[in-house]
Amino acid sequence: MSDVRDAFDLSGRVAVVTGAASGIGRATAVTLAGAGADVVLGDVDEKGAQATADSVAAAGRRGTVVRTDVTRRADVDALVERAVAEHGRLDVMCNVAGIPHNNLVVDTTDEELEQILAVNLKGVFYGCRAAMRAMIPRRSGSIVNISSGAIDTPAPTLAVYGMTKAAVAMLTMDLAAEAGPHGIRVNALAPGVILTNFSARHFTDPDGTVDEQRLRGFKERFGGMAPLGRVGTPEDIAYGILYLVSDAASFVTGQILRPNGGVSMPW
């Protein structure tokens, strides 16, 4: 069993997580810290990121907050540079930051389009590029990007969101082919419906209060679509990320892992 535990042990490693202030980003940072990694936390929400850093510290690891707007290349470069400057290395890059979008194509404004592209696609690209530049000299590392189940199931109002996430999936595969010769692995997750800030708008009031009846309805509706009969949690995704960045997945690259309860099962 010691060998099994060692396969998931991240002791001595350094991870960067964008979107670390809440949801999947926060769960990922805390999970990686629980496995032994120090974590550098990037988000525009510094207060939320600090709360995540406190949880990382509670797990016995170091959490460093760096205010990061992923739409700004300089911010993402500075985030990775901070990790290398303070820890001397970068082992794991998790490009989690993203924003939702629901609107018909015909009603989507140019401003909406540019914002979604900037966060969900360009932000991931900047993170991948910065991480590669830091990892290539060490000839090791793991990059994980967040795609979405929207790449598998077309739906009205999800065109812009889905196309950015499909682009993330393609970026992941192309970069895996480029990174492999340098000893770097690149993978993505395409989550199903997860209880995060993304989904909260469906069951919260304008003041942020959770409407329990709407929450139950949300869980019943979307959980009913999955063979497993439930929606996902941020921790469900974080454990998938832990697997992908650990030595347990040392022969895994260019793959799209789908933690979605079985809603879609593509080959």
Overall pLDDT metric = 95
Low-confidence stretches: none
Instruction: Name the helicity range.
Output: 40-55%
Shape: globular
Give, in order, the helices and strands: HEHEHEHEHEHEHHHE
Largest sheet: 7 strands, parallel
The number of strands is 7
CATH topology (level 3) name of the largest domain? Rossmann fold
The CATH superfamily name of the largest domain is NAD(P)-binding Rossmann-like Domain
The CATH architecture category of the largest domain equals: 3-Layer(aba) Sandwich
Provide the fold topology.
Layout: H1 2-7, E1 14-18, H2 23-34, E2 38-43, H3 46-58, E3 63-67, H4 73-87, E4 92-95, H5 110-135, E5 141-146, H6 159-179, E6 184-189, H7 197-200, H8 212-223, H9 234-245, E7 256-257
Parallel strand pairs: 1-2, 1-4, 2-3, 4-5, 5-6, 6-7
Helix pairs in contact: 2-3, 2-9, 4-5, 5-6
Summarize this entry quickly.
It is built from nine helices and seven strands, in the order H-E-H-E-H-E-H-E-H-E-H-E-H-H-H-E. The chain is α/β, with parallel strands linked by helices.
Description:
This protein is an alpha/beta fold and 267 residues long. The protein has two domains: 2-192 and 233-256, NAD(P)-binding Rossmann-like Domain (Rossmann fold, 3-Layer(aba) Sandwich); 195-231, no CATH class. It has helices spanning 2-7, 23-34, 46-58, 73-87, 110-135, 159-179, 197-200, 212-223, 234-245, and strands spanning 14-18, 38-43, 63-67, 92-95, 141-146, 184-189, 256-257. It has a seven-stranded parallel beta sheet, with helices on both faces. Helix 2 (23-34) runs parallel beside helix 3 (46-58) and helix 4 packs parallel to helix 5. The radius of gyration is 18 Å and the shape is globular. It starts with a helix and ends in a 10-residue tail after the last strand.
